[in-house]
Design goal:
373 residues; alpha/beta; UDP-N-acetylmuramoyl-L-alanine:D-glutamate ligase; seven-stranded mixed sheet; three-stranded mixed sheet; magnesium; metal ion binding
Length: 373
């Protein structure tokens, strides 16, 4: 909270968690929303009336009722009780000794069925009939509540399931807040090569490079706005070390990075198009959804992105000065393209939870994947 960082933790005490969840749920002013990264991304897609969405995950009665009509849940995914995630939203300002620099949230849950990735096999077996154009996966961070042995076994099964998805269908993985470096490192080495695209924020990016000994991994935390050059060095390293190349059997060719004041879309050349629109759409939805407005309300947003920055801290770096008339900046490095956009940040956000999911969904919606992929 002192850093204004988003975080999520597994709550291990089942009884206490259920007591808290019950009290929260029955509270007169309680608000129930669709939860879970995949469900939120699915909801965002379903808002486009010509898109059909298949959602697999532990779906209880309340969640089922909240889902859009365009979201189809296979019967095997339905369960008798809902899983709850508790979201503590806070505004910028003081709380006791702490001073939050900006609004954010802390999430906690005791969610075992998502943690065990229970519905993955159901999902893959439903794909043949559904014939998707895109697959989105999330929830790997929920495995932190599982034993080490189970994590290792389940991760291998996850990779096997992903490889069962028909060739040519892009697979996007949405990351989330984690604390277990060993699990993060396993995800980087085992899961990354099996997926096509990644979505993550600055906390996840720094934790990822620390866990897998990437560039700037000695940095313990971001100091204010994450440095653009550092971020792009880490994105470059992920795609160079774990992404697709002539010498590596990896499918990973795209990363959509988001932080409060700017977003970057990094893509391996030859696999994606329409990046400018995709990264701009992600920035636009960040401004509208946080303020709960249909379009950007200029009186309620502020431009807090760096006005100038280095594109890298290696010898490849160049200095960029932001041009308001052409806000999306593009640069290239060894066969990888970077598209940077500032974000019009909502000054008085209604809620911050699910923003990353909306950003990733919009970015994917506007992304064109090359069929020869």
């Amino acid at each position: 909270m002192g850093k204004g960082a988003a975080a999520e933790r597994f709550f291990s005490d089942k009884e206490t968690f259920h007591d808290i969840a019950q009290v929260a749920s029955e509270f007169p002013g309680a608000q129930h929303y669709v939860g879970g990264n995949a469900a939120l991304i699915g909801q965002k897609f379903a808002a486009n009336s010509d898109l059909k969405v298949l959602l697999c995950g532990p779906v209880g009665p309340k969640l089922h009722e909240l889902l859009d009509d365009n979201v189809f849940v296979p019967p095997e995914s339905l369960q008798e009780v809902d899983e709850f995630h508790l979201i503590l939203e806070y505004q910028a300002g003081r709380w006791g000794q702490l001073k939050a620099p900006h609004a954010n949230r802390f999430i906690f849950s005791h969610d075992l069925s998502n943690g065990a990735m229970n519905m993955l096999e159901v999902f893959v077996s439903s794909l043949e009939e559904f014939q998707p154009d895109l697959v989105v996966l999330s929830g790997l961070h929920m495995m932190e509540g599982q034993s080490k042995e189970l994590q290792r076994k389940r991760l291998l099964e996850v990779v096997t399931s992903i490889s069962d998805i028909p060739t040519g269908i892009p697979v996007h993985l949405e990351l989330a807040s984690m604390t277990n470096r060993e699990l993060m490192s396993s995800i980087v080495h085992q899961v990354f090569p099996a997926v096509t695209s990644l979505g993550l924020n600055e906390q996840e990016l720094l934790f990822l490079t620390q866990s897998a000994s990437g560039p700037h991994s000695s940095l313990s935390s971001w100091n204010g706005v994450p440095d653009v050059g550092m971020v792009s060095d880490i994105l470059f390293w992920i795609l160079k070390e774990h992404g697709r190349s002539k010498s590596r059997a990896s499918d990973l060719t795209r990363i959509h990075f988001h932080t409060l004041v700017y977003h970057i879309l990094a893509t391996v050349d030859g696999h994606w198009a329409n990046q400018l629109a995709a990264v701009a759409a992600g920035a636009r939805v960040a401004g509208t959804q946080a303020c709960a407005t249909e379009t950007i309300d200029t009186s309620r947003v502020s431009l807090r992105a760096p006005q100038e920055f280095m594109t890298s801290h290696s010898e490849a770096g160049s200095r960029i000065v932001l041009n308001p008339n052409k806000p999306v900046v593009e640069w290239h490095r060894e066969g990888i393209s970077f598209h940077f956009t500032p974000v019009l940040v909502c000054k008085d956000p209604i809620r911050t939870v699910g923003l990353g999911d909306a950003i990733s969904a919009e970015g994917l919606f506007y992304s064109e994947v090359h069929p020869h992929y």
